[in-house]
Amino acid sequence: LELRNISVDLPLGGFMTRTRLPILLDVSLTVAKGESVALVGESGSGKTTLARAVMGLQAVTRGSVIFDGQSVADPAGLARLRRDAAMMFQDATASLSPRLTVGYLVTEPFRIHGQPLPDPEHVARDLLAKVGLPPAIAARYPHELSGGQARRVGVARALALGPRLVIADEPTAGLDVSVQAEVLNLMSDLRAEMGLAYLIITHNLALVRHVADRVVVLYLGRVVEEGPTAQVFATPAHPYTASLIAAEPRPDPRQRRMDLAIRGEVPSILRRPSGCEFHTRCPMARDLCRHTAPALAAIGTGRQARCHFVDQQQNQPGVRHAVEH
Ligand code: SF4
């Protein structure tokens, strides 16, 4: 999957107005075969809009989405993406129709895509077994499932047509910690067994550490940092990334870095800050940041960051210490 300089503008106050708000700005990223890429950022960063744009559920204003060498703006490219890529939704129970049995729901993608389904019961049993659920679950309705079971049914449904890419929107949201761990392990096992690629949209950094090879950090619809997960967590190059990592819950509160803590709320996209858009919350902001926007610049193999003071950030005493604990 390749996103080339994607921008998405949405109309402000309904489709009759001419005013458009930029939600995503010039976002590029790739997910290679079998690779797992996480997209992180707070609410309002544009993560879900990006997932919808990839699946052709949201029109792209500029740029292109390429899957397997074909633009998804072409009907043939979109059909191919929809056959070979699947979406795992955030609210698993709400995404499952309450009037259909689990057996019907997990085999529904065959019907939607007009694929042959000679023995639905057998296919349903196989799909449920892949996600560790017993065959008897096939006769149940979504309201009869626990949160963890509903999430597994959502995964089974996503796997129905043998996708090569799974786009997972907050796959652990709303689950308690032990069920989160089960879902993470399931995702890792399926990746190893089936060679799946993942694009994971989340603000759960534990999930990112566990499943992602690379991480892309979004702030107000722009990529502010990208790189291999282990490197980004060990030496974050952008103060926003460092703040997100510093804000992770820790067993010992004395290990939290208050000087790196993120300040205030995400600004409204109606009033984007001047210069570096993170300057209103950045603990390292200087005068230059208030009026000059930094470019996304390479900082080593496969790494990029959007900050005037990347070198100081990476060498800041204590950053390495803070994120290693
Ligand atoms: Fe902070 Fe300035 Fe870097 Fe923006 S450019 S992240 S305000 S130090």
UniProtKB/TrEMBL annotation:
Residues 1-245 form the ABC transporter domain. It comes from the Bacteria. Keywords: ATP-binding, Nucleotide-binding, Plasmid, Transport. It is found in: Cell inner membrane. Pfam families: ABC_tran (PF00005), oligo_HPY (PF08352). It is a peripheral membrane protein. InterPro entries: AAA+_ATPase, ABC_transp_ATP-bind, ABC_transporter-like_ATP-bd, ABC_transporter-like_CS, Oligopep_ABC_C, P-loop_NTPase. One of its GO terms (molecular function) is ATP binding. Coiled coil: none annotated. PANTHER family: D,D-DIPEPTIDE TRANSPORT ATP-BINDING PROTEIN DDPF-RELATED, TRANSPORT ATP-BINDING PROTEIN. Belongs to the ABC transporter superfamily. This is ABC transporter ATP-binding protein. It comes from Fuscovulum ytuae. The lineage of its organism: Bacteria, Pseudomonadati, Pseudomonadota, Alphaproteobacteria, Rhodobacterales.
